[in-house]
Design brief:
The protein is an alpha+beta fold. Helices cover 42% and strands 15% of the residues. Helix 4 runs parallel beside helix 9, helix 8 packs antiparallel against helix 9 and helix 8 packs across helix 10.
Length: 361
């Protein structure tokens, strides 16, 4: 079935003009749809949901509809523009949140006009604004009942379980690679006790359960094309219950590293404290005093654990034959692992500075 026929299943009016592939995402297939409504072109986003990753589409969309509806109400109450400051799910003609065609599942969003996204913070203030967007996302949802959300990917950031899976891969040594990465294995195992730092605090109630985005890459924020100010957070597929240290930490892992994720020369890898400062400042500004003292204290640990967790996952995949992460050469997962572990080591050297930069709002 073509895009025109799929669009007709959704509650939008107008004559179909065109559809074209859109964006740089690797999970869901995305198209930009253009319709003519009263002589004006109106645009929407149409996505085919990847059910290999998100098997329960009903729960996935229930999360997204509930969270975006909550956000729209909050933004409206504060005098903002919900059409530009959060996503709007377009219902199907029978009132559903997605449409199913055989094995394929589709959803639509209203396109946010006049917005841009960035894959790298090459302009001043972009990382600050990114942090501010995710902080505001957290602040707006600070009174949302996080425990009512579904886990769209079970144990996504359960670091102790990731550690167990890593140890199993070392023990199995399916590809006979463990001996050649003994140093990396030792580095991870020496930090076993820290893998439980966040989950333990969540379990005993020292950290509050929050609505967590879980994919805080820079390109998941939309910016106003003219002002370069952040508008809204997108890609809500992994919105789940958790600790906000996950979100803060993964953004730092991605945004404050001086090297590419698969840089083979680890001497180029370091934590850029100025970029850390920019993101932390924006994030804390967006949170507007909604964090607890313990959450503030654990922000650097979030950065360290999300980086260590990624390093474990890359090495687990390397030991298991590169079956999960897409690779372009046989050592790429090992290179990825080594950059993450080098970044962890540099965070440990700069721990006091990190703590000071994210100590208060």
């Amino acid at each position: 079935m073509g895009s025109k026929e799929i669009v007709n299943r959704f509650a939008v009016e107008g004559d179909f003009i065109r559809a074209e592939e859109y964006g740089s995402g690797h999970i869901n297939r995305t198209e930009l749809i253009e319709l003519s409504q009263g002589g004006q072109a109106v645009r929407y986003i149409l996505q085919r949901i990847n059910t290999q990753i998100f098997a329960n589409v009903s729960q996935l969309m229930e999360n997204i509809v509930s969270v975006t509806s909550f956000l729209r109400d909050k933004i409206r109450e504060q005098g903002g523009d919900p059409d530009r400051e959060t996503l709007q799910v377009i219902q199907t003609r029978d009132g559903g949140s997605y449409w199913k065609d055989g094995a394929d599942h589709y959803r639509m969003y209203r396109f946010v006009e006049g917005a841009a996204s960035y894959d790298a913070a090459k302009e001043p203030g972009i990382l600050y604004e990114s942090g501010k967007a995710f902080g505001r996302f957290q602040q707006l949802l600070s009174d949302y009942p996080a425990d009512t959300l579904h886990e769209t990917i079970v144990d996504f950031h359960n670091t102790p379980k990731r550690f167990e899976t890593f140890c199993d891969a070392v023990e199995a040594d399916r590809c006979g690679r463990a001996a050649s990465v003994a140093q990396e294995i030792s580095f991870i195992k020496e930090r076993k006790s820290e893998t439980q730092a966040l989950t333990g605090l969540l379990e005993n109630g020292e950290l509050p359960l929050r609505v967590v985005h879980n994919d805080t890459k820079l390109n998941n924020v939309l910016f106003d094309k003219n002002t370069k100010k952040s508008l809204c957070v997108i890609d809500l597929d992994t919105v789940m219950p958790g600790t906000l240290a996950y979100d803060f930490g993964d953004a730092i892992r991605f945004g404050a590293n001086t090297a590419a994720e698969d840089e083979p020369d680890v001497s180029k890898v370091s934590l850029d404290l100025e970029l850390y400062r920019q993101y932390a400042s924006g994030y804390l500004s967006g949170c507007s005093g909604s964090l607890t003292e313990k959450e503030l204290e654990m922000l650097p640990m979030g950065a360290k654990l999300m980086t260590l967790e990624c390093g474990m996952r890359f090495l687990t995949d390397y030991l298991s034959g590169d079956t999960y992460f897409r690779i372009h050469h046989k050592r790429q997962n090992l290179d990825r692992c080594r950059t993450q572990l080098a970044l962890v080591a540099d965070m440990e050297r700069k721990w006091e500075q990190m703590a000071r930069l994210s100590a208060s709002e």
